[in-house]
Design brief:
The protein is built from 8 helices and 11 strands. The chain is of the alpha/beta class. Helix 1 links the parallel strand 1 and strand 2. It binds uridine-5'-diphosphate.
């Protein structure tokens, strides 16, 4: 799809976006699980962006419940632990669907692992059709394969549906820094980075598989802070927020 060139005329800069939320964005400040107030807030932000006519697809992680690698470290087989992680993304997807529906946003969950009693299977053409009809879609169960992450699922699905950008929402920081800003007060935030810089400097944007996919397909990523109200809208309108990762000019 063609990217609308400027957000300055009051129109959104993008017409189809993929928003990646980590599982932790849905968790209470302390501990794991789901914070229904946080879900309701996110739903309202998404509603605001959908009302601009922007087509929205979401990918949700599961760090608020299970990360496969943690259970592997405790002795489980990685593949089984990752399958548990993928199931946990379905829990988060259903919870966000519920919050969106309560906000009046028509939403469909499409799972990479078939669960027909709970949600639709992922079928690319159907996903695109939902978007064209103005429905928000949530991609659940990651890529459906162990040894991947939901960041990679976000890159893959963004490519498949022709999204113009990945908005990578962070619940803690307002962009990409040269060092951990939570521990080092002098850490510097980047406004702009190339994919290669992210990979070479090993910066915490998305995992390297996801970054490589975006690099190969020239899909820009904007990393921004979800906790600041209105930020999803700002990113969609083309305002300079957070850190933009893209090809060298
Ligand atoms: N996962 C997987 N394959 C995928 C996506 C996710 O196996 O394609 C599993 C993996 O165990 C991962 C967990 O699901 O740790 C949750 O995803 P992720 O760690 O990306 O969640 P986030 O950090 O974004 O909350």
């Amino acid at each position: 799809m063609a990217e609308v060139q400027s957000g300055l005329n009051g129109k959104p800069r993008f017409s189809r976006i993929l928003l990646k939320l980590s599982g932790e964005a849905l968790a209470p400040a302390q501990g794991s699980g789901l914070d229904l107030d946080a879900l309701a807030e996110i739903a309202l932000e998404i509603k605001e962006v959908a009302a601009l006519g922007v087509q929205l697809a979401l990918v949700i992680g599961a760090g608020n419940f299970i990360r496969g690698i943690d259970y592997e470290a405790r002795g489980m087989d990685r593949s089984t632990a990752d399958q548990m992680g993928m199931l946990a993304t379905v829990i988060n997807s259903l919870a966000l669907q519920n919050a969106l529906e309560h906000a009046g946003v028509v939403t469909r969950v499409l799972s990479a692992i078939e669960m027909q009693a709970l949600c639709e299977p992922y079928i690319r053409r159907r996903a695109v059709r939902h978007l064209e009809k103005g429905r928000v879609i949530i991609f659940a169960a990651g890529t459906g394969n162990p040894y991947f992450t939901t960041d990679t699922a976000a890159s893959l699905r963004a490519m498949e549906i022709g999204a113009e950008v990945i908005l990578k929402a962070s619940h803690a920081v307002d962009g990409v820094y040269d060092r951990d800003p939570m521990r080092e007060p002098g850490a510097k935030r980047f406004d702009r980075l190339t994919y290669i810089e992210v990979l070479q400097k090993n910066l915490k944007v998305m995992d390297s598989t996801a970054i490589s996919m975006c690099m190969d397909n020239r899909l820009p990523i904007i990393v921004f802070n979800l906790r600041k109200a209105g930020n999803i809208r700002r990113a969609v309108m083309g305002e300079q927020i957070g850190t933009r990762v893209e090809s060298a000019p």
